[in-house]
Write a structure and sequence with these properties.
alpha+beta, 6-stranded mixed β-barrel, 23 helices, elongated
């Protein structure tokens, strides 16, 4: 029958039966005619044809099975029968669904979390047309940042992109004042679960100020994304002069509800950020994160950045790469066309830059689907994700093996049923299909439960994580709501699980029925079933051992990371970072004076024994540098790449209990510090292996390494090594950052470094007195405090 005839037969059951009957009668007539031509009489020829042809009912059933047009009907019959069978065996169904739902749920949870965290898109209208941009350098590396003048040039010249927008590469915490509310309510906003545990900095507010997280974007940011404001309006593109005269900001709906209680008069309200008077003109939708994963409290236009940071002109520096670019494809333009155009623009633009190293020059502008993350996530991260996915896949295999074992045990009670069906004319293929349909139903039922449970669990965890983080650190937005990709993944993995655990029992059960029907040895089937169950149990044990060993190593590594020796004292030490308002009234001299006054007040606090300055060994970031030894000018022959450096106060080592192995530390003195350094033991071994470094000279260069804005740099001078300190644990667990170079903090830059306060009482008790102490000095100064013990392990005993 033709395909058209098959579907016509499916739609008209009566016509289908007539056509099959006519087809069978045609074959009988042809056989009868052939017998007559061979010399048989008519009655004998008809009888012989019917005997040779067989039972017409059996042939009609076979034709129906071969008829693809009947496949939906037979499949529906299999589903109905399988549903009734599972319903009659409720205990087996419940156990099987629970085991499968556990395995599928874990895989669904990991997939949804991976998709929501790592492979998430941007919050925008028609997100498929949003693209991210990144420079491919001559060295093979990628640079996702460009300068603000580069952005302006690209925005004016592109044709394949309907719009290009820029954003700052990181969030900032600014001092907010004039927002109203009581001190207690502002503290409540900053409280969080992790802060109560001491795992995150505790925001200590003064009487007039608090911290707020901001994200700086270009004026056309919201227009390009195509998202309407919840209330008010967004920035006006190309209106930089008006913004400079009357600065405006946009508040997020989440912060509006949490900090201002949904005050309907928030639009038009004036506040101060870093001392700059700004007006709130709009509210973004709930949970709108744009091109990031962290929801800020305020969105600030990039054009007023010099006003926010008191005349800072780094945005106008062509060599200061501080902006990430996003674009929207123009109608009819393809990604390849836009990339070719942007590459040409980038080559012409960056040809004007004064790059000193050819390897830092870009060779291509790469465009890829819009994402909050750079394109290159790193091999270590992707390898870790692969291991997690492999482990969850093993859990699913164990669940499938468990259900397959249950299926084999249940098959013994179904031998009579399958035997009767086969004796009535059902083929083995038909029985296998029926058993696989039941297994697929089990998988789909388990997948439905797994999807609901994993989605509910992720929603709860996302809500807890959102509420646990302090308000001034922003809000992490994770999209865990299922979409078509999630549904497709769950559907595919559920069907795969059904086939995986159902295929072997189906084949083995039908083979046993076939053997019994042929009067084979009845003991063969049970023996084969036992061997198959043994293999399944052995596989489960093997995979479980792999997971158990891997999990044990992971737990042991985590315990080791939490309890490993630090090399310095962490008990009763408080890390206190001060944030000063910007503005002409808070110049460098006043900040230095405020710092001295605050240190005097803290030194007089009960229980405080020592106060020093410098970043803690595991919380100061990795500041890399190239080092040349024995005072040589930096060149490829005398260079040692690379080490880490840190500025500290003279009493830093004594306060943190870091012993000086040999040599000396820094001398306390006023004015410019002496050009000396102290090396860690690892740095001394690396720079002068087997030699005494005391009295030797070195030069440091930070060119080509990460540096923060306005950071103090140790370049362009020679330093003498005066001491070697004991190695301490830094930020990297493998100890690869132990090679540290310590430099003395200049007197005029002390304001840029945090305080480390040692007490005789638990450091957490001092947190309660810091707020009043800071407010007594200046209510506009805000401090973040954290105890070192909560983020470190145990002290090295030496």
């Amino acid at each position: 029958m033709s395909l058209f005839s098959q579907w016509r037969s499916y739609l008209s059951r009566k016509n289908g039966k007539d056509e099959r009957r006519e087809e069978l009668e045609f074959h009988l007539a042809m056989r009868e005619q052939w017998n007559v031509e061979r010399g048989m009489r008519d009655e004998e020829a008809r009888r012989d044809a019917r005997i040779r042809f067989g039972n017409p009912a059996t042939w009609r059933e076979r034709i129906r099975e071969m008829d693809w047009g009947m496949m939906p009907q037979t499949l529906l019959q299999d589903v109905r029968y399988g549903w009734r069978t599972l319903g009659r065996n409720a205990r087996f169904t419940g156990v099987a669904v629970f085991a499968l739902a556990l395995g599928i749920g874990i895989n669904t949870t990991i997939f949804t979390a991976y998709k929501g965290l790592i492979r998430r898109g941007v919050d925008a209208r028609d997100p498929g047309s949003i693209v991210s941009m990144s420079l491919l350098l001559q060295s093979g590396g990628r640079e996702p940042l460009v300068s603000y003048p580069d952005y302006e040039a690209f925005r004016k010249q592109t044709q394949r992109l309907s719009a290009i927008t820029a954003q700052s590469h990181e969030f900032e915490q600014l001092i907010m004042s004039g927002a109203g509310g009581t001190l207690e309510s502002r503290k409540a906003v900053s409280d969080s679960v992790f802060r109560s545990w001491g795992l995150l900095p505790s925001s200590t507010v003064g009487s007039k100020a608090e911290l707020a997280s901001v994200f700086m974007v270009s004026e056309n940011y919201f227009t390009m994304l195509g998202v309407a404001p919840l209330r008010g309006r967004y920035f006006v593109e190309g209106d930089e002069k008006q913004l400079a005269a009357a600065p405006v900001v946009i508040i997020s709906e989440n912060y509006w509800q949490k900090r201002f209680g949904g005050d309907p008069g928030i639009v038009g309200k004036a506040i101060r950020l870093n001392g700059l008077a700004v007006t709130i003109v709009g509210i973004t939708p709930h949970d709108f994160a744009g091109t990031t994963i962290i929801l800020p409290d305020f969105w600030v236009p990039l054009s007023i950045e010099p006003l926010i940071h008191n005349g800072d002109r780094s945005m106008r520096d062509e060599d200061d790469a501080s902006c990430r670019l996003f674009g929207r494809l123009a109608p009819g333009a393809t990604l390849a066309q836009a990339q070719a155009e942007m590459t040409g623009l980038a080559m012409r633009r960056f040809g004007l830059h004064a790059k000193h190293d050819a390897k830092d020059r870009p060779k291509e502008m790469q465009l890829f689907p819009g994402t909050p993350f750079p394109r290159d996530l790193g091999r270590d991260l992707m390898y870790g994700i692969f291991l997690i996915m492999a482990a969850t896949a093993m859990v699913l295999v164990i669940a499938c093996a468990n259900v397959a074992t249950l299926q084999l045990a249940r098959a013994a009670s179904r031998q009579n049923e399958l035997g009767v069906r086969m004796s009535l004319g059902a083929s083995r293929r038909r029985l296998v299909r029926q058993l696989l349909t039941e297994s697929a139903l089990l998988g789909l039922i388990a997948g439905s439960f797994a999807l609901l449970c994993s989605w509910g669990m992720l929603r709860i965890l996302a809500k807890l994580a959102k509420d646990a983080l302090p308000a001034d650190m922003g809000i992490y937005i994770v999209h865990v709501d299922p979409d078509m990709q999630t549904f497709a993944y769950v559907f595919a993995i559920s069907l795969a699980a059904g086939v995986l655990f159902g295929m072997a029992p189906a084949l083995e059960s039908t083979r046993s029925v076939l053997s019994n029907s042929l009067k084979a040895n009845p003991m063969i089937a049970p023996g084969r079933n036992r061997r198959l169950r043994d293999w399944l149990i052995g596989g489960q044990v093997a995979i479980s051992f792999v997971l158990l060993i891997g999990g044990s190593l992971l737990v042991r590594s985590a315990c080791h990371a939490l309890t490993m020796e630090n090399g310095y004292e962490t008990a009763n030490v408080l890390d206190l970072s001060l944030t000063y308002p910007d503005g002409p009234e808070y110049d460098d001299a006043r900040r230095t004076a405020l710092l001295s006054h605050i240190m005097e007040k803290l030194a007089a606090a009960p229980g405080v024994t020592q106060i020093t300055q410098g970043r803690p060994p595991d919380g100061g970031g990795l500041r890399g540098a190239d080092v040349s030894i024995d005072g040589h000018v930096l060149d490829p022959h005398g260079i040692r790449t690379f080490s880490f450096y840190m500025y500290v106060a003279p009493n830093y080592f004594d306060t943190l209990g870091i012993p000086i192995v040999y040599g000396r530390g820094f001398h306390a003195q006023s004015g410019a510090p002496e050009p000396v350094v102290v090396l860690s033991q690892a740095a001394a071994r690396w720079l002068w292996p087997g030699k005494n470094p005391i009295g030797r000279a070195l030069r440091i260069s930070t060119e080509g390494h990460y540096r923060e804005r306005n950071e103090l740099l140790p370049d362009e001078r020679s330093y003498e090594v005066v001491g070697v300190a004991h190695d301490v644990r830094g930020e990297l667990l493998d100890g690869s950052d132990a090679g540290e170079i310590y430099l003395p903090i200049p007197e005029d830059r002390r304001r840029d470094y945090p305080l480390l306060v040692r007490t005789t009482t638990p450091a957490g008790q001092l947190l309660r007195t810091i707020g009043p102490t800071i407010a007594a000095v200046d209510g506009n100064v805000v401090a973040n405090a954290i105890t070192l013990r909560n983020c470190c392990g145990r002290r090295h005993s030496s």
